[in-house]
């Protein structure tokens, strides 16, 4: 995660670098005297770090609380591929990790709809922005392949609504 953006921007000058593990990111700041301020982000591939920067710039600081091995972790909504209820417990699935959560599917669906959260079955909410591929299935269902290669089936009850969203009707 990338939390110290405000501090880094205040302290950095043109052509300094932000280190994140093995990757580095060039930060260029340019003061203007007229016109509108703008932020341009150039990237090769969307990463969690880039997503966090975009969320910060857009002013969205919402985080989801997940628990794994007794440790609490704050997750940006963009990192979550889907939420699932198993035996009454909610799990948050990211690309490589699974976390327990106290979040209900109803609250996730309601509070994070702008982040692409969509109810796809009675026990699951998925992030439509993290879908890699869709395939129609018999019985008016849809198979969604997520960014991490996992398959999530969208039930026929919710498939019609997803089609409307994808066509821009909702």
Question: Summary?
Answer:
With about 170 residues, the chain is α+β, with helices and mostly antiparallel strands.
Question: Care to describe what's here?
Answer:
With 170 residues, the chain is an alpha+beta fold. Helix content is 21%, strand content 35%. The protein is built from 4 helices and 12 strands, in the order αββαβββββαβββββα. It has helices at 5-11, 48-57, 105-111, 156-167, and strands at 16-20, 23-27, 64-68, 71-75, 82-86, 89-93, 98-101, 117-121, 124-127, 131-137, 141-146, 151-154. The protein has a 5-stranded antiparallel β-sheet with strand order 7-6-5-9-8. A 3-stranded antiparallel β-sheet has the order 10-11-12. A two-stranded antiparallel ribbon has the order 1-2. A hairpin with a 3-residue loop joins strand 10 and strand 11 (141-146). Mean pLDDT is 82; it is low at 1-21.
User: What is the alpha-carbon Rg in Å?
Assistant: 19 Å
Assembly of the depicted chains: single chain
Structural class designation: alpha+beta
Provide the β-strand percentage band: 35-45%
H/E topology pattern: HEEHEEEEEHEEEEEH
- Rounded mean pLDDT is 82
State the share of residues found in helices, binned by percent. 10-25%
Overall geometry comes to globular
**Strands side by side in the biggest sheet:** 7-6-5-9-8
Total of DSSP H or I helical runs spanning 4+ residues: 4
Weakly predicted, low-confidence segments: 1-21
Largest sheet: 5 strands, antiparallel
Q: Calculate the terminal CA-CA distance, rounded to whole Å.
A: 32 Å
The counted number of beta strands is: 12
């Amino acid at each position: 995660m990338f939390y110290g953006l405000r501090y880094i921007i205040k302290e950095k000058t043109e052509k300094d670098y932000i280190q994140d593990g093995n990757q580095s990111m060039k930060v260029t700041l340019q003061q203007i005297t007229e016109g509108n301020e703008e932020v341009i982000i150039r990237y090769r591939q969307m990463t969690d770090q880039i997503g966090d920067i975009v969320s910060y710039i857009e002013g969205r600081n919402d985080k989801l609380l997940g628990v794994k091995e007794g440790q609490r972790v704050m997750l940006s909504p963009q990192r979550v591929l889907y939420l699932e209820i198993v035996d009454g417990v909610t799990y948050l699935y990211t690309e490589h990790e699974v976390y327990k959560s106290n979040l209900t599917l109803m609250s996730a669906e309601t509070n994070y709809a702008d982040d692409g959260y969509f109810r796809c079955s009675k026990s699951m909410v998925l992030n439509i922005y993290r879908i890699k591929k869709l395939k129609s299935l018999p019985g008016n269902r849809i198979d969604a392949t997520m960014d991490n290669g996992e398959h999530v089936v969208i039930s026929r009850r919710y498939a019609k609504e997803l089609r409307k969203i994808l066509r821009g009707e909702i």
